[in-house]
């Protein structure tokens, strides 16, 4: 990688570092009902919506009440999405005449957008109607991330409240997340993206006669509105099959860097929000520093690994100084593609501006690794929750090592929290490893692999890692349109979201009821560089121990075979 | 002295007999029904059974393809069994040491006969083992008290050295705070009636014996939490290893079962899993070495978390008795004169205060001989003075106002500034005694509450651990403040009644803090019961001992500091070894993964960064290291990781360095060394 | 109001505001820059010849050629080849393409050909190529069109897109933009 690459990473880190304080403070004020500068406009709208839905924002729920309503709403949306996908052929706004989806594909797609995964087993240009793109996909891009954000908010309230089991009003939080955070950001950045060349039109495909006299039909549509919320909300579902590599979704290096910043923005700010909830900004900064350091390392490594083309391509004698260009766009080159790749896998977004399947073995390993760790920022809300799971375990070990019952921010971590945390921690790898192995053992599933050998293992593992981490990006070579993959990845997405949210909110409920212990000399402080270092160490070691064998047989085996 | 014997015995970590017994027990503990309580080691045992099965199958049918070999299967099986045995051994040693301590305790319980007082008033000789709770026995001089109980009638001096190791006899009397007696102690004089307070096998001694032996051990909260984490790791690694076969199968690489089992055992946290229960038992044992008996492991663990320590001033911070500190003469008299009169008036005074006046006088070089033919005037609550009436002179010392009345009655005038001088001493937190010769007040004696030497250093140490000390005293705020300042406690409550302790504890607990306190009186019992750590003094009442969750046999309240340290040490040892265990796994992957797959995927040889000799030597080295490290760490598990009263961050940094980074690096070296040894045998 | 009813209302509201009003409203607002909003189509002499940012297939010797496209520049089915780095197909395809380039551009050696010209883009619609990829085609185009090489070089320099903030992206030229210029020049010749 080049100095330019380092500069890019540094610029991104600095801009995010500058943004999290204002945005994080704003988010905190929104959820705590404090005054914000948008009140004059959004205040009346919010009051109207609350009245329309008879929401009493001061009526708070315990963790069970909170998560039950969240799940009920999510599943209602998933069911609605399923219906629309099935029936889109008979519904209006279908200029490309996309037929209704098969049940398995509709299930997969509905779950995918309902869980903030945005895994796309269909091709956007031909298999989703404009109506589906708008009322299902665009809508879900707001709602699914909103429910993730409010989960994190509820968790943080649990951490910060003193002997008070109530975590807030789910409906009020959900609506505020959309109305006051996601929508303003989406409006703003839609306006930024359109002049950069992202189409926003209701017209059908354009037909052109090329200079060489060929016909070319060009798909287009209301892309800008989707592109903005797709990144702000860590959704990642593309309007087009090529996702953010498509010149309409991401026309230039300028739009590319904006999209990168957009997907990191809210997840990073949520860490700052944590500091505010804990009334310890330093705590927020320390965790942010740890996570951003991980991000910098992974982004840097991806760039570095991608700066070399596949040796077998080198043998043809062409000039490979530009690095591994297969599956990358000229306008981004290797560095901007790798940075986007590391960002989208870190922040659980899933949009891609290059073909991850064509990355070098180690470059691809970092991408899949980011999703396996699931904590390098992660998506808005869900990411912070995953980080907090790791923090609980870090605190547990550290607490023991200093000779005290472990506590985080004055709340004791006892066997109930550890038990629930362990469930959340185990679900992720077990789901990934289980489905990957199952699929490699089933011949028909195995046949979906495009690139055989060790790369095939990576392809398969990537699919289920992406689904479980609710990421949505893919090693596109794997043919996942079969009913088998639609069902298994769909189930993996559900497990990856709800089987983690439920125990983790139970932890929040349990912590909320606890007293906050005063700090003393004997308390191990969690807002120090030492803690940041330990957190990084634990994230990497637990991740490495869990996934090393798969990575050894997949990307590492491929790497050693290629590079010797 | 039993207590000291216990210390001596525990001083040696292991002796030959102990080890022999532990070795035998480690085989007995192979029983799966027993081992299933420790899931990590249970998995190892199942692994050992599987590899042994393959060894036998290979030995009979020959090796069926793959990379297996009879010798390899045999050695792996052997070392897996060793792994289980080593873990069992650690537990057996800890239990053995506990048993040795219990034996010492038990030896104190000589099989005695009890004089049971029957309803008809007759005395019947029964065996002590038959006594039931509520029965009344009689014990006379020379009798061994047959069981724990409470004196309901009489007063006696009792030798409690069997329990406490303290040879000085103590007074036990009906009513009040000194009514409790412990089985196994001996009555030296007089006769008492004792109401037995425990059924056989439930006595205090029995409870602690079973706890020390580890028989009744219940997992403590942190231990449960840690066990859950260890089970989680075991599940992850079970899955990781289980999927290797199908994953490798996709690449036509199918490792043999023996190697896979070896990998599994190396990955699951056997180090901490094998030592966890030994650590817990050893923690209780260490406490016993300090002559503190914990009623549960939970209490020991809670001790490590203590935020606030409530301490009675009297007896804990100060010696409890006031000591003469200074003789201050009034105008016209000198210090020696005051000292002389004070000493004369104290000759008949057996109280510690009186004795301290004599001591001070001697220290100041005042020579006084006891005059002949004098009559001792005893202290009474009415006169509030004591002294000596001799032929020529009369000497008195006593409370300032009492002496003043006495002087005025004798026709003397009070010295000028009498009131001020008295007030001044009182304001210093001391007690003024006035001294008069023939009715004339010549000076004052300052009686001072003396803070025990070294106590402020101990509080300093507590502060470094993050524990707030709070002194409770019935004294006035002046006195309390002075003592508090001198002793270096963080806070104090003056003019406190015993009942106030309850409120204080509740208040602290309401803020989420954990509170420890010591107590001995019956009126301490409720507070001891609600305190998170209630350390009762063995000299205290039965009620106090039953309310608390620890008993200090030496009745030294300052012992709480050791208790706290042991509690912390317990957690630190667990945490450090867990970290070590997990950090170890990195090297094991690098040893075993390339070994498993090198033959099929040659590129993976690059992962063999230790350059281990062969497939077999790599896997065997990792397994051997994994087993040996358990044995190597047994002493650490038994002794505990040393606790240093540093700030939490300093401790953490240190332990991460040693057990985290060390745990990462050490096995790389260890495995490589073992591999080099194996290479000598061309394995 | 019970939760079920409230949830239905929330979905209705969300679909209405987020799914319909939001995209429709912006499609309206976007009419302020209709050309960008509709996909930045390039019109030459009254004929829409393509979208500026959507690559298209050029194979005749007089035009600049773009990168390999996994989907043959089908703008209704974008996508990458997804060939893994160890997939032999990667080399077959690259060699085939390289031989074609060497054949079409005499005097060019393999090491003069940047790897991007023998690899497929991520979208299959990459509209651009790097500067070296453009320059290596100059002599071929000059020969087949009669346009002076210097004019072509000037054209490349004119249409060069640099890095954003000196850091982001790679210097490159848009193939369609260049070819439209060539088409125009040839048109002048034709007339």
Automatic annotation (TrEMBL), chain A:
| Ion transport is among the record's keywords | yes
UniProt membrane topology term: Multi-pass membrane protein
Task: Report the domain of life of the source organism.
Answer: Bacteria
Give its localization: Cell membrane
In its UniProt record, a GO molecular function of this protein is: P-type potassium transmembrane transporter activity
Signal peptide as annotated in the record = none
Provide the primary localization: membrane
**Gene Ontology CC terms, in alphabetical order:** plasma membrane
Which keywords fit this entry according to its UniProt record? Cell membrane, Ion transport, Membrane, Potassium, Potassium transport, Transmembrane, Transmembrane helix, Transport
The residues that cross the membrane are 6-28, 66-85, 134-156, 177-198, 257-278, 285-305, 384-402, 422-442, 491-509, 530-554
What is known about what this protein does? Part of the high-affinity ATP-driven potassium transport (or Kdp) system, which catalyzes the hydrolysis of ATP coupled with the electrogenic transport of potassium into the cytoplasm. This subunit binds the extracellular potassium ions and delivers the ions to the membrane domain of KdpB through an intramembrane tunnel.
HAMAP family, alphabetized: KdpA (MF_00275)
NCBIfam families reported for this sequence: kdpA
Q: Which family does it belong to?
A: Belongs to the KdpA family.
Q: Can you state the subunit structure given in the record? A: The system is composed of three essential subunits: KdpA, KdpB and KdpC.
Q: What is this protein called?
A: Potassium-transporting ATPase potassium-binding subunit
From which organism does this entry originate? Answer: Candidatus Solincola sediminis
This chain is encoded by the gene named kdpA
From TrEMBL, chain C:
Classify the source by domain of life.
Bacteria
| GO terms of molecular function | ATP binding; P-type potassium transmembrane transporter activity
Keywords assigned: ATP-binding, Cell membrane, Ion transport, Membrane, Nucleotide-binding, Potassium, Potassium transport, Transmembrane, Transmembrane helix, Transport
Which residues does UniProt call coiled coil? Answer: none
Main location as per UniProt: membrane
User: So what does this one do?
Assistant: Part of the high-affinity ATP-driven potassium transport (or Kdp) system, which catalyzes the hydrolysis of ATP coupled with the electrogenic transport of potassium into the cytoplasm. This subunit acts as a catalytic chaperone that increases the ATP-binding affinity of the ATP-hydrolyzing subunit KdpB by the formation of a transient KdpB/KdpC/ATP ternary complex.
Listed name of the protein = Potassium-transporting ATPase KdpC subunit
Q: What is the primary gene name for this protein?
A: kdpC
């Amino acid at each position: 990688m080049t100095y330019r690459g380092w500069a890019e990473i540094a610029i991104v880190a600095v801009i995010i570092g500058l943004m999290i304080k204002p945005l994080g403070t704003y988010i905190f004020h929104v959820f705590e009902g404090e005054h914000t500068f948008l009140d004059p406009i959004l205040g009346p709208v919010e009051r109207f919506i609350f009245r329309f839905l008879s929401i009493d924002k001061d009526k708070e729920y315990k963790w069970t009440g909170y998560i039950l309503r969240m799940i009920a709403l999510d599943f209602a949306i998933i069911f609605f999405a399923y219906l629309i996908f099935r029936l889109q052929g008979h519904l209006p706004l279908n200029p490309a005449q996309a037929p209704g989806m098969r049940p398995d594909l509709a299930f997969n797609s509905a779950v995918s957008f309902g869980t903030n995964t945005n895994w796309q087993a269909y091709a956007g240009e031909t298999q989703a109607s404009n109506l589906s793109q708008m009322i299902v996909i665009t809508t879900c891009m707001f709602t699914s991330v909103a429910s993730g954000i409010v989960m994190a908010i509820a968790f943080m309230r649990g951490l910060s409240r003193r002997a008070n089991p109530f975590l807030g009003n789910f409906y009020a939080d959900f609506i505020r997340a959309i109305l006051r955070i996601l929508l303003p950001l989406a409006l703003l950045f839609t306006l930024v993206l359109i002049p950069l060349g992202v189409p926003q039109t209701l017209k059908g495909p354009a037909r052109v006669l090329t200079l060489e006299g060929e016909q070319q039909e060009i798909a287009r549509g209301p892309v800008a509105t989707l592109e903005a919320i797709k990144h702000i909300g860590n959704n990642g579902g593309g309007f087009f099959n090529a996702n953010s590599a498509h010149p309409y979704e991401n026309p230039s290096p300028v739009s590319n860097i904006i999209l990168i910043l957009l997907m990191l923005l809210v997840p990073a700010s949520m860490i700052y929000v944590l500091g505010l909830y804990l009334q310890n900004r330093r705590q927020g900064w320390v965790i942010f520093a740890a996570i951003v350091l991980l991000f910098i390392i992974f982004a840097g490594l991806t760039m570095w690994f991608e700066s070399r083309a596949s040796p077998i391509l080198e043998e043809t004698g062409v000039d490979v100084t530009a690095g591994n260009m297969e599956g990358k766009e000229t306008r981004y080159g290797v560095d901007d593609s790798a940075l986007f790749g590391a960002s989208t896998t870190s922040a659980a977004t899933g949009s891609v501006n290059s073909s991850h399947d064509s990355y070098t073995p180690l470059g691809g390993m970092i991408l899949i690794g980011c999703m396996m760790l699931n904590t390098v920022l992660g998506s808005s809300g869900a990411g912070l929750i995953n980080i907090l799971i790791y923090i609980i375990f870090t605190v547990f070990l550290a607490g023991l090592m200093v000779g005290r019952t472990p506590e985080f921010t004055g709340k004791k971590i006892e066997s109930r929290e550890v038990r629930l945390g362990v469930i959340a921690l185990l679900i992720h790898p077990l789901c990934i490893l289980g489905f990957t192995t199952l699929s490699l053992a089933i011949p028909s599933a195995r046949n979906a692999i495009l690139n055989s050998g060790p790369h095939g293992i990576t392809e398969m593992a990537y699919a289920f890692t992406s689904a479980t981490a609710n990421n949505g990006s893919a090693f596109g070579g794997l043919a996942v349109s079969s009913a088998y993959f639609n069902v298994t990845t769909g189930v993996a997405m559900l497990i990856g979201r709800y089987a983690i949210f439920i125990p983790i909110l139970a932890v929040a409920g349990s912590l909320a009821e606890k007293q906050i212990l005063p700090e003393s000399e004997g308390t191990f402080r969690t807002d120090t560089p030492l803690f940041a270092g330990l957190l990084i160490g634990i994230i990497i070691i637990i991740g490495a121990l869990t996934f090393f064998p798969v990575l050894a047989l997949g990307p590492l085996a491929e790497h050693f075979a290629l590079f010797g | 002295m039993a207590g000291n014997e216990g210390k001596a015995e525990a001083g040696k970590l292991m002796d030959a007999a102990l080890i022999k017994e532990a070795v035998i027990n480690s085989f007995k503990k192979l029983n799966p029904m027993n081992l299933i309580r420790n899931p990590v080691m249970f998995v190892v045992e199942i692994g050992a059974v599987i590899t042994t099965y393959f060894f036998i199958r290979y030995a009979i049918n020959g090796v069926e393809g793959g990379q297996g070999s009879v010798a390899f299967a045999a050695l792996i099986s052997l070392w897996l069994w060793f792994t289980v045995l080593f873990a069992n051994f650690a537990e057996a040693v800890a239990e053995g040491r506990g048993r040795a301590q219990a034996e010492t305790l038990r030896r104190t319980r000589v099989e005695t006969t009890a004089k049971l007082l029957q309803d008809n008033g007759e005395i019947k000789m029964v065996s002590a083992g038959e006594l039931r709770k509520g029965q009344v026995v009689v014990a006379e001089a020379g009798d061994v008290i047959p069981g724990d109980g409470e004196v309901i009638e009489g007063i006696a001096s009792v030798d409690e050295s069997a329990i406490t190791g303290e040879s000085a006899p103590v007074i036990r009397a009906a009513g009040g705070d000194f009514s409790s007696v412990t089985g196994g102690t001996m009555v030296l004089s007089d006769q008492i009636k004792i109401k037995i307070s425990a059924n056989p096998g439930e006595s205090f001694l029995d409870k602690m014996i079973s706890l020390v032996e580890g028989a009744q051990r219940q997992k403590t909260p942190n231990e449960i939490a840690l066990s859950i984490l260890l089970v989680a790791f075991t599940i992850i690694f079970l899955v990781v290893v289980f999927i290797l076969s199908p994953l490798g199968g996709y690449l036509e690489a199918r490792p043999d079962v023996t190697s896979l089992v070896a990998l599994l055992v190396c990955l699951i946290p056997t180090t901490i899993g094998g030592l966890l229960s030994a650590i817990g038992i050893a923690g209780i044992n260490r406490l016993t070495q300090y002559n503190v008996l914990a009623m549960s492991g939970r209490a020991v663990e809670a001790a490590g978390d203590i935020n606030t320590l409530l301490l009675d001033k009297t007896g804990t911070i100060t010696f409890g008795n006031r000591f003469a500190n200074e003789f201050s003469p009034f105008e016209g008299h000198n210090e020696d004169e005051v000292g002389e009169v004070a000493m004369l008036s104290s000759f008949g005074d057996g109280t510690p205060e009186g004795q301290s006046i004599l001591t001070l006088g001697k220290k100041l070089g005042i020579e006084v001989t006891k005059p002949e033919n004098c009559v001792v005037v005893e202290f009474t609550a009415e006169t509030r003075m004591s002294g000596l009436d001799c032929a020529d002179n009369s000497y008195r010392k006593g409370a300032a106002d009492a002496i003043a009345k006495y002087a005025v009655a004798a026709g003397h005038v009070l010295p000028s500034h009498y009131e001020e001088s008295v007030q001044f001493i009182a304001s210093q937190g001391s007690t003024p005694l006035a001294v008069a010769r023939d009715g004339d007040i010549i000076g004052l004696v300052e009686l001072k509450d003396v803070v025990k030497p070294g106590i402020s250093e101990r509080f300093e140490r507590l502060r470094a651990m993050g524990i707030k000390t709070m002194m409770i005293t019935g004294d006035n705020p002046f006195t309390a403040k002075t003592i508090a300042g001198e002793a270096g406690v963080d806070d104090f409550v003056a003019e406190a009644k015993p009942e106030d302790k309850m409120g204080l504890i509740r208040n602290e607990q309401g803020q989420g803090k954990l509170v420890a306190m010591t107590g001995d009186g019956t009126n301490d019992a409720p507070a001891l019961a609600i305190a998170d750590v209630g350390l009762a003094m063995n000299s205290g009442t039965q009620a106090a001992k039953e309310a608390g969750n620890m008993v200090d046999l030496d009745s030294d309240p300052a012992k709480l500091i050791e208790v706290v340290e042991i509690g912390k040490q317990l957690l630190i040892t667990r945490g450090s070894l867990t970290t070590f265990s997990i950090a170890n796994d990195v090297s094991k992957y690098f040893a075993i993964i390339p070994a498993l797959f090198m033959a099929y995927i040659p590129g993976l040889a690059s992962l063999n960064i230790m350059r281990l000799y062969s497939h077999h030597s790599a896997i065997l080295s990792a397994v051997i290291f994994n087993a040996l490290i358990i044995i190597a760490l047994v002493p650490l598990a038994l002794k505990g990781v040393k606790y240093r009263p540093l700030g939490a961050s300093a401790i953490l940094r240190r332990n991460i360095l040693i057990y985290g980074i060390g745990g990462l690096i050490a096995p790389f070296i260890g495995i490589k060394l073992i591999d080099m040894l194996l290479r000598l045998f061309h394995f | 109001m019970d939760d079920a009813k409230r949830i239905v209302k929330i979905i209705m509201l969300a679909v209405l505001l987020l799914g319909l009003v939001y995209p429709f409203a912006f499609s309206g607002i976007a009419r302020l820059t209709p050309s960008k909003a509709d996909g930045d189509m390039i019109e030459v002499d009254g004929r829409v010849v393509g979208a500026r940012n959507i690559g298209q297939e050029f194979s005749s010797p007089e035009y600049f050629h773009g990168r390999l496209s996994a989907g043959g520049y089908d703008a209704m089915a974008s996508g990458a080849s997804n060939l893994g780095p160890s997939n032999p197909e990667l080399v077959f395809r690259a060699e085939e393409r390289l031989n074609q380039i060497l054949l079409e551009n005499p005097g060019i050696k393999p090491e003069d050909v940047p790897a991007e010209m023998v690899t497929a883009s991520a979208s299959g619609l990459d509209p651009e190529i790097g500067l070296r990829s453009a320059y290596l085609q100059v002599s071929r185009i000059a020969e087949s069109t009669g346009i002076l090489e210097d004019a072509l070089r000037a054209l490349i320099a004119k249409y060069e897109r640099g890095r954003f903030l000196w850091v982001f992206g790679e210097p490159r030229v848009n193939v369609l933009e260049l070819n439209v210029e060539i088409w125009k020049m040839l048109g002048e010749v034709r007339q």
